[in-house]
Amino acid sequence: MKLTSKPSRTPSRLSDSLSRQLNMYALAASAAGVGMLALAQPAEARIIYTKANKNIGPNTTLHLDLNHDGIADFDLKDTFSTNTTGGLLGQLTVSPDEEKNAVWGHKVHWAYASALSANVRVGPKRQFLPGRGMMARTFVSGGVRLPRPLFSYGFWCNVENRYLGFKFVIKGKTHFGWARLNVSCADFRVYATLTGYAYETIPNKPIIAGKTKGPDVITVQPATLGRLALGRN
User: Fold this and answer.
1) Between 20 and 30 A from 39 (CA), which of 21, 53, 94, 233?
2) pTM higher than 0.85, yes or no?
3) In angstroms, rounded to a whole number, what is the distance separating the alpha carbons of residues 92 and 61?
4) How far apart are CA 108 and CA 215, in angstroms?
5) Domain spans of the chain?
6) 92-111 burial, b for 16+ CB within 10 Å, e for fewer?
């Protein structure tokens, strides 16, 4: 999807569920003397950052709902399989759940999801994949020769505090977001931990990967807001 129009500075309408819960969060904080959302009301929010600590193990899928509207925006899928010759394959991929959603990455033989560093600007004119992106993969060949070589590849093998860059659609308008993960390739498998994610409420406005503080940021807990579902494949 190409974006050619000038970015709008009009905030999108937050989901009814998110607005209600942010208001409740603010009331509870105010009652406790904290004044939690004195810095911004929900309608004025710019970045919604969600803390997380969710492990993604072999043969599980995490359905990531960036904007807490009850609809999954992306799937993080971890698989592990064997074949008849004794070969082992583990891999972690990310896929959009909607046609116009996309992950920052590039294609060289495979479509690879980029492992962004903190402070990278995620926004228009970046290179986004049209579909699924490979994050990390391990492969052990079959046969009788021992020890068998282990191959690991992908930008996400054995990294900490790296970021997926997202563009996704809310009510027909494009928004940008990110997810922070730690990923390891060990024991012929891929393991990942989601440690946080965020999105920008203003359509077409870039977001800085890893930005979690500032007057334009509201921080929420996954147990308080939204849907972060982890299930078997």
Assistant:
1) 53
2) no
3) 9
4) 40
5) 44-232
6) bbbbbeeeebbbbbeeeeeb
Number of continuous H segments (helices) and E segments (strands) in the chain:
1, 16
The per-residue pLDDT for range 51-108, each reduced to its tens digit, is 999 999 999 999 999 999 999 999 999 999 987 666 788 999 999 999 999 999 998 8
Q: Decide: 190 and 89 in contact? Cβ < 8 Å.
A: no
Model confidence pLDDT, tens digit, residues 187-204: 889 999 999 999 999 999
The CA distances from residue 33 to 27, 28, 38, in Å, are 10, 9, 11
Pairwise CA distance, residues 47 & 61, whole Å? 26
Residue 70 buriedness (CB in 10 A; 0-12 / 13-18 / 19+)? exposed
d(Cα 204, Cα 167) in Å, to the nearest integer?
Answer: 9
Token match 């810095």: residue? 39
Size of the chain in residues: 233
Residue 201 to residue 215: CA distance in whole angstroms:
14
